[in-house]
């Protein structure tokens, strides 16, 4: 029994060694014959019968030097044009041509004293007629004639973005709208006064809450454009 166990162990060890050598060979790309040639390598001597000189051949050595390790070629990842191409601006993404349009005169305003008569520290500073805080975002707060565009109405204003009617003003009547900007400098640098076509996305019902405005600004499909708006 002991002899059988010994033979069995020897056989198992031999199989393990053979498997290990096969694995090393497949990875290194060096065969058993290459190893034997390397160990037993003796330069071949070639005699030139004309000059009677002896040179050593490097052929066998160089053949081993050219052996390279096998490696797995990394698969190239290709992205289709459909995956990398798409709307580059918020206006393209909105597909505004499907919505009715009307011509308005659009001006800009801020939360400051120059537009509202209120300074920071005033209890109603930055608070619109609807009760929400003024905001410049994917969906910004704007003022309009509430008889034309009730509170909650969503307009798309080219070069500005989505505007949600949240406020009114004594000078904002008829076809006039007022767009919120964070600073007076932004009003002059980015807008001023423009006559243009706006698109009616949704007519409001007369109400607007902070929760509704937040949900609009968290629309997943529009987040890629958020930086364009907030840093403009």
Automatic annotation (TrEMBL):
GO terms under biological process: peptidoglycan turnover
Signal peptide limits: 1-33
Chain segments annotated as transmembrane: none
Name the record gives this protein: Cell wall-binding protein YocH
Keyword list, A-Z: Signal
Classification lineage: Bacteria, Bacillati, Bacillota, Bacilli, Bacillales
Species the sequence originates in: Oceanobacillus picturae
3D domain span: 140-201
GO CC term, one of those recorded: outer membrane
GO terms, molecular function: hydrolase activity, hydrolyzing O-glycosyl compounds
CDD domains: DPBB_YuiC-like
InterPro entries documented for this protein: 3D_dom, Resuscitation_pf_RpfB, RlpA-like_sf
Highest taxon above the source species: Bacteria
Pfam families, sorted: 3D
